Amino acid sequence: MDGYRTLRLNAEAEKPSSIEALHVMLQNLLTERFKLRFHFDTTQMQSYVLTVDKAGPKNLKAHPEVTGGSVTLDRTVDQVVHEKWSAHCASMDFFVWRFSAWLEQPMVNQTGLNGCFDFDLSFTREPRAGTPLREVPEGTDTSGPTIYQALLAQLGLRFESKKAPVETMVIDHAERAVEQ
Questions:
Q1: Measuring CA to CA, how many Å separate 17 from each of 90, 118, 180?
Q2: Which helix (H) or strand (E) holds 167?
Q3: Is residue 49 one of the residues assigned to a domain?
Q4: Domain that holds residue 116
């Protein structure tokens, strides 16, 4: 890729900090190093909306306090199609952010669930529209709940595809970083 260069940023907080504080620190670092100026805008667009089912949430163990070092959301894959997501002290906003990257479509958290949670989510992956799933070895067990079924049965959550307000970051200005 002509003209592109990778610049790695390594940073460490001086003390344990909340997720919100870490986001502010990262924003300040990017602003300082890249002279980054941006603003947030809300745009109506096709997205997945995550909500709590009418029966209420299930199997979400709440934590009293969140610190940046406490949050994990691990994804493992078994036999190509079986996914397991294990969360430790993950907020619904963090889950939605990570999950939207996997879905390749924006996802909006409308659960109203605040704080951080431990939970496990296991499901059988379906091929994405227009993208064939990698070849599944013969004899692979492809049974199991879809992501929609698993969210509802295991966590009491549901998501659907519809137009919703999605917060987007608009970059107004950035400069090439000077290596230090």
A1: 14, 19, 25
A2: strand 157-173
A3: yes
A4: 43-127+140-168
138 class by beta-carbon count within 10 Å (0-12 exposed, 13-18 middle, 19+ buried): exposed
Hey, how many other C-beta atoms are within 10 angstroms of the C-beta on 142? 13
With respect to residue 98, please indicate whether it lies within any of the assigned structural domains.
Answer: yes
Is 67 within a domain? yes
Give 18 or 158, the one with higher predicted confidence. Answer: 158
Using DSSP bridges, classify how beta strands 107-109 and 37-52 pair: parallel, antiparallel or unpaired: parallel
Task: Read off the pLDDT of residues 136-158 as tens digits, 9 standing for 90 and up.
Answer: 566 666 678 888 888 999 999 98
Place of tokens 């431990």: 118
| More confident site: 44 or 134 | 44
Q: What's the distance, CA 161 to chain centroid?
A: 16
Q: For 17-43, what is the mean pLDDT?
A: 81
Dist. CA 135–CA 137, nearest whole Å: 6
